[in-house]
Amino acid sequence: MKLVPFSYNLRSLFVRKGATTLTVLGIGATVAMLSGVLALEQGFRTIFTESGRERVAVMLRPGAGSEGESAFSRERADVLVKSSPEIAVDDEGRPLASRESYLAVRRFKLDGGETNVSIRGVQTASFDLAGDRLRIIEGRRFTPGSDEVIVGAKLPGRVRDCRVDDVIVLNTTPFRVVGVFEYDGPFGSEIWGDVERLMEALERPGFNRVIAKVKDGVSFEAFAERVADDQQAPAKVLSEREYLTAQTTMLSITLKLLGNFLAVIMGIAAVFTATNTMLSVIEARTQEIGILKSIGFRPLSIFASFLLESLILGLAGGAVGAVLTLPLNGIETGTTNFATFTEIAFAFRVTPEVLTTAISFALILGLLGGAWPAWRASRMNPVEALRRH
Amino acid sequence: MAGALPLRLVFKNLFRHPVRSALTAASLTVAFFLLCTLQSLVVTLDAGVEDAKSDRLVVQSAVSLYVILPESYDAKIRSVEGVEGTCRWTWFGGYYQNPSNFFAQFATSEQTLFSIYPELSIVEGSAERFMSDRSSCLVGEELAAVYRWKVGDTVPLIGTIFPRTDGSTWNFRIAGIYRSSAASVDNRTMFFHHEYLSKSLEDGAANGPDGVGVYVVKVKDGADVQSVMSRIDGLFAKGPQRVQTTTEAEFQAQFVSMVGNIPFFVSSIGMAVFFAILLAVLNTMLMAAREQTHDAGILKALGFGGRTVFLVLMLQSLALSVVGGGLGVLAAVGSSAGIRHALGSMFPLYEVTTETTVAGLIGAVVLGLVAGLVPALRLGRLSCVAALRLEK
């Protein structure tokens, strides 16, 4: 089968610059919308899932879905740490486990309005567990036992009273900000202080969670199972990665649903536009189609040729959409984590997956838009086509 | 004859390419359906703020949404000058059968609920029955419809914040089904006796934090709202829990503010949708203008002015946009009940308001004007000879 030369399609796209540009831009806008939402989802997912450590166990009260809901009395937390030989120890033989308190506190944004900021009471072991992931970039760590806090690097630019030497009043107790820290993960939007001091200031009845490093060689699942069935101090054990992923499932699903919903609705509109463009292309070139047919091109070649032209439109639209999305990459934004109503700062991430999805989507739009017009072209009667003026 | 608008020509031209017109109108329909739906989501977020009562105040912890207030505050607040009554609201956070069956449940003051919230009325069962049965509950009309609950049914809930000590479910008998006539309370909430929750915690039948989420305060007629607010705040300034008293409107607005950038994201998406659909209509109008060049030449030769030629094309653009966009707006209005149902408790107040509908229609007109402008102007300015000479 002889194929219609590719250059024929390319040239004709350039001849009808106006329609080509508008169709490409229309597909581009649709694609950009989809990939923008996907880039948001990727950014959110990265900061949560990918920052979660596999061998760090998050222990919650049985039945609790998040640390906000979870609670441990002092005794229970102690039993949990002391009676778990699976927990790794540091050089001096102390367990690498930390009892933490957690509360989303009301704070005011710099640009007005209220937001909720996670405030975490930690023990020194939390820093040991964090290791290099936590870096003090300004000031110093808080002194254990004192009314001092350090703030995540994402906060000073968004929330009031979060610069070094500012004072944060929690209920009635003032806390001094002594440092700013960076953390690759959601902790970068938190305030950290001494767990005992914070629990007293905020009148917390107990700890919210216990985190611990699981010894190398110990099966995480076996540990989780044993603790879940423990008689004295049962707890729900998740790896930090599982925990963080679970926290964002709802938002991830919402964003994906939104992305799909937009893609389908606007995809329909883009397909219709592409169909219109291709129909008018074919009408304007009726005579040419007649000539092609009369010089021996088969209907299938003509079908393929016009479908290809439509695919090129789609591809170009996908490229435009991708180019429109690229500048989003790295832009910091914040969204509400509905599990806690806290604001999490993160960056859009235009990943290769996002781009691949965008381009594939654009090609599908081109394919769907071009199929029917191309079929019509292939079915034209050569004599009538030539006669048409 | 010159000057009369050949409306028949507008009509004929629209049907010259029925497929193209239909596809363009259909694109407009889906796009305007989307625009109206997105806009309604944003509007819904603000619905609670607009319907809030100015004589109701909300007393909550100044520290955190998750910090509850002592029960002893109730009597203290009631004794403040200018306060008529209080109603407790404590978030229960339980689920029915499965965690995905999410709806709001509040422990509340059964005696004052109806006097402080006159927008609530009982459509089935009775308020007396609710008040006299300590383990009974009230459910909203829409909530009852979702789970097909009737008065007399028992609703078992699993407590997440307040698990029962023996691991069993909380069982609430439905004493009544309420309807709310204002957006300040939605129709998808369950209310039960605060006293029942407090007693269960006290008896050790359940675990969980002991206290009250927020106190809603009704201000006496004629009392100065601002001074009542500062009196309540002042009462607890030294602890044990500092409070923040706001009007109901401010309280609702706080939640909207906490939703963060979402309205901005939604608006950005809306702009992209509008832009994409504008390009689609512009594309169609450029094609139409090209095909009608010859006609334009004939019209001019017959003595019609450039204005007529301009209007013939402009009216086609307007007709397409208004019909297509209008159908989309209509689809959004028609599907609003279905969408509200699908969104469930996330947006219990979802509604396509009259403002949204009007804005959608205006948007369609504007889009038609903008898309038609350049092609119509070009065609109108073309000289008769040039237009006729141009090959089709």
Low-confidence stretches of chain B: none
Number of strand elements of chain B: 11
The count of β-strands of chain A is: 12
| Percentage of residues assigned to helices of chain B | 40-55%
Quickly count the helices of chain A: 11
Descriptive report:
The complex is a heterodimer of chains A (389) and B (392). Chain A has helices at residues 6-15, 17-50, 74-82, 124-130, 195-201, 220-228, 240-284, 286-294, 299-325, 352-378, 382-387; strands spanning 56-60, 97-108, 114-122, 134-139, 148-152, 167-170, 173-183, 190-194, 209-213, 236-239, 332-337, 342-347. By secondary structure, chain A is an alpha+beta fold. In chain A, strands 1, 2, 3, 4, 5, 6, 7, 8, 9 and 10 form a ten-stranded mixed beta sheet that branches. In chain A, a hairpin with a 4-residue loop joins strand 11 (332-337) and strand 12. With 392 residues, chain B is of the alpha+beta class. Chain B has 15 helices and eleven strands. Chain B has helices at residues 7-14, 18-50, 73-78, 113-116, 127-132, 141-147, 194-202, 225-235, 248-258, 262-291, 293-301, 306-334, 336-343, 354-381, 384-389, and strands spanning 56-61, 83-91, 94-95, 104-108, 120-125, 136-140, 154-159, 170-180, 189-193, 214-219, 243-247. In chain B, helix 1 packs across helix 12 (306-334) and helix 12 packs antiparallel against helix 14. The longest helix of chain B is centred in the N-terminal third of the chain and has 33 residues, at 18-50. The radius of gyration of chain B is 30 Å and the shape is elongated. The two termini of chain B are 27 Å apart. The model of chain B has no long low-confidence stretch (mean pLDDT 87). Classes of the chains: A alpha+beta (389), B alpha+beta (392). The interface between A and B is large, with 53 and 53 residues.
